[in-house]
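User: My collaborator sent over this chain with a note saying "see what the structure looks like." That's all I know about it. Can you take a look?
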Amino acid sequence: MCGIAAIVTMPGHAIDGNLVGLLDRKLAHRGPDASGAAFFRRDGLPGDTSQAAIALIHRRLSIIDLDARANQPMTSSDNRYDLVFNGEIYNYIELRQELQRAGYQFRTESDSEVLMTAYAAWGEKALTRFTGMFAFALLDRQKRELFIARDPFGIKPLFWTVGRDALAIASEIGPLLDVPGVSRNVNLARMSLYLSVGQTDAGDETMFADIFSLPAGSYARISLAGPQRPAPISYWRPRIERRERSLAVSAQELREAFLQSVGFHLRSDVPVGIALSGGIDSSAILGAVRAIAGQNQEIHAFSFIAAGSEVDETRFIDLAARAGNAVRHDVYIEPEDIVGDIDQLIALQGEPFGSLSIYAQQRVMQLAAANNIKVMLDGQGADELFAGYRPYVARRLSELLASGRLAEAAALIGAIRRMPQGGLRLVLQAFEAMTPRYLQDTARALIGRPLFSPWIEKAWFADRGALNAGPLPPRGPGFLHNALVQSLTDTVLPALLRYEDRNSMAVAIESRVPFLTPALADLAYSLPSDHLVDGNGTSKAVLRAAMRGLVPDEILDRKDKIGFATPDRQWAARLRPWFSKVLRSDTARASSWLRPDDALAALEGRSGKGVQFGFDVWRTVNFLRWVEVFNAKVV
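Assistant: Without extra context I'll predict from the sequence alone. Here is the result:
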């Protein structure tokens, strides 16, 4: 797990040593254990900085093979390839054995050398052989090209930009803003998307107009002769291939695949901990780790405690920790802490974020680091694979209605109406998904989700051709599976993975997500719909069945869905002075897309609706602070 960067200059230009040093320093938090840089001429041969047109930069967080020989940039034994790599290849032991049988030799015990050797043996086809998370740049001196790639889910980040004199890539956005010729102009369509529906990460664009992301599950080649914008080629996308079988069979398949994945994710030469929320996903990871490690292995679990709030999951955290015999570590947060830390968090994340839960996650990672943990396991991805969010129940209802299975639909509506959290809204969302696209704005308003908050100047975005509410709910007979894939690839998971990566790497922790492997994704999207959301509206039906005996029944039988949440509404009164300060700032007053007085009226209860503290208020305030922290230009 590391920070990587690379520079390929335009013809007639040489590497700027100051820029190399700057990229290295700005990625130092991602890899405090070692630092390295290598320089090459345009013909691919090594050269000093006065001759170099290409630079590879690496900051190492040592997780597997702690020996200095595994440091990077790493050069192949035949001197053809040079690698900078961020991530882990969990099945490196099996791949190494296969490559050795084919005659390849190894000088280290690292997964990095396995990755490089696998590419030498199989080319880009090696990408589909890896079980892991990765973003890397590999220089092929013979072909005189830089090969860049990212793992199937985009767990590890990789950004690029084209400046005045060079193309540059890096693990984070911040360092690329210092590349000469790169502006800080805001991508207005992405700004609109965030302010309207809260989506922060989508496709290859970022909130900065000049900085882009290599899409998940893709690779690209960059010529050393004259670098052009990367043209990504997709090598993996999730497949929907439903296969009928009983719930018991599906649960057994899932249990075996999940235990295998957790076993792979435990491979480490440093201590491993678990982020425990008390929900099904993190409890399943803890239960699986205990089953694999045995009763004598010490396991440390780290949790955010929202004591006394509507999102307090202490009881379930206690249940999971006792069942898994885990050593508990808890963090408590006062809302005033947020005000002192928020600018640092905004700078760290690089782009605006969706809620204050990101801060709680950061504090959990800080607690783990303080206890000398260098690897954390987390449950990201389970909701997008196994239908964990409440709106997926609505998509299941849409599916039943659209296919004419009215008796089952009626039974599900009855179950939804008995749910403790927003049952009627779920029914309305089901009909929204079936509404013709030209009526979607009206449908949003009817269920209380207008496109923009009343203090946002919608016309300002329309005049600039930047109105963007994101993709509409997928339609067709596969409402549920299509919605899951959309969440996994486009609307939900990309942001969650970004939050996870930045918060963990800020304190030199490698965060691993055992639910996110192509094998588990293919299994999830092969399941019948009622194995995901059953006739009683129970989400994750198959995961609950698969985890019986590993996770306490009281957790598996939960009907509520909290997730990793913070008590935003209860913090509102104590945070209101800070929100007001931001909305009264010079930046707010100078923002022609915003009516700050209307936002203040809503916040302070003068709009006739009481104190309004929702994600829309947070998004507005967070965006304003992000503009100031990054000196971003809204033009």
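A starting point for your reply to your collaborator: The chain has four domains: 2-158+214-234, 247-386+492-556, 394-484, 573-630.
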